[in-house]
Input
Amino acid sequence: MDKKITSKQVADVGEFGLIKLLTEGLSYDAQTIVGVGDDCAVYEVSKGHYLLATCDMLIDGVHFSRKTASPFLIGCKALACSLSDIAAMGGRPLFALISLGLPETTAEEFAQDLYVGIRSMCRDYHVSLVGGDTVRSPERVVIDVSMIGDCPKGKYVLRSGAKPGDAIVVTGYLGSSAAGLEIVSGKQSESDAERRSELIEAHLAPEPRCAHGVFLVENFEIHSMMDVSDGLAGDLGHICEQSKLGARIHADKIPISETLKAFCDSAALNPLKYALAGGEDYELLFTLAPAELERLTSRWPDMFEIPLTHIGEMDANIKGIHIISAGRRERPLDAQSYEHFRKSRERE
Output
């Protein structure tokens, strides 16, 4: 018998509680290797040939604002979310279906420019746009992206495979997107034009790490991986939970750009807060054996310009995430992710 729905509101259970409620008891056929719970579902089409499937919904006023972002950038970001999910599995994006909900008062030019951004990302990441749907939305613009990818050489990586002693590694810089969001939403200000532009660009024009994910999975034994979409603390918490391990990270090793540091210095803010809890960085967070890390760090600079940073280790003897401060003080870290429906965790 289906579980009885109580009189609680979704705000009472939150996004993750709602997902658990709706998906409890789901069953899969033998070809569905991974269902709900990772960045993508994994489906075995034929022996050793896997397809990845993901979808993301973006709503005006929640994930973007038409007041602060051009339709071109909104279109780019809509694709970036799903591309990053494919990258997090070490996959290669193949094709996408886009569904739009538009108020009837939406300018035709907005829809056209939105699709210029969508097509631009499809071109840059070699994705075919093969269909979708359009409907009238009563109030807000809604964009839904479904994306299919595959796994080169039949390899994919889950969140659940981390091993004790694994090095925890992240690509790029963390926290800049969250600072950019606070600037465009008016919660913070930045008088330096160059810093303002760089932080806003990090929020509105993220770059999914598809090539980086494929490189990692094809050349190294990556044990677990996901993208940083809800903040380092929350996303590493997912790896810990699904791998049934703890993690110890070093505050002074978390990669924060000089631009974000300068912004925080000028406003008396803590850049670590943005890196740990900000979200929407769309960098790759992964774990691998220390010996593999040595090989990786020797090859990475020849392949990519963005930094690669070893921030900690997985540990079977602790629960959750512990963070070590610059003064060597160790404390447990709240691993809460951004969560839809939770009123105290709204992005805007």
